[in-house]
Specification:
By secondary structure, the chain is mainly beta. It has helices at residues 6-9, 18-22, 62-65; strands at residues 37-39, 42-47, 50-56, 66-71, 74-81, 96-103, 113-118, 121-127. Residues 33-144 form the SHSP domain.
């Protein structure tokens, strides 16, 4: 009886394992936009009683290309950049639809939202109440008899 070469013993299947297939996806893969849309990169923080979201949207006309909505505690930013065919050169710019939704903090005032656009950065500010300090409760200690 012949021994099989070690290479045959570790032969890989034609399809890679699921772990390999999905290893390149970021941890927020469940938030991927539709295939024809691109993800907007953003940063957010709470500062001075406002939840502030900053989104990278260079080369946009805020009046025509950007739409901001809020519904059921979710802030959604949508943008559209149309391609301008100006020649036969190379372009590495992203064109098409861009979108991103984030959950607003608890208690966010959906009626008090403002947005501004400066140098390719969209800033959206949502008023949030300052968390009330937890009420202090004193517990009476009973002496054992």
């Amino acid at each position: 009886m012949k021994n099989l070469p070690a290479a045959n013993a570790s032969r890989r299947s034609l399809l890679p394992g699921l772990v390999e297939l999905f290893s390149g996806f970021p941890s927020w893969a469940g938030q991927w936009p539709a295939p024809e849309e691109h993800l907007i990169r953003l940063e957010d923080q709470v500062e001075d009683g406002h939840y502030v979201v900053r989104a990278e949207l260079p080369g946009m006309d805020p009046a025509k290309d950007i739409d901001i909505t809020v519904r059921d505690g979710r802030l959604t930013i949508k943008a559209e950049r149309t391609e301008k065919n100006q020649g036969e050169g190379r372009s590495e710019f992203s064109y098409g639809s861009f979108t991103r939704s984030v959950s607003l903090p608890p208690g966010a005032n959906e009626e008090d939202i403002s947005a501004s656009y400066d140098k390719g950065i969209l800033t959206v500010s949502v008023a949030v109440p300052k968390p009330a300090a937890p009420a202090e409760k004193h517990i009476k200690v009973k002496a054992a008899s």
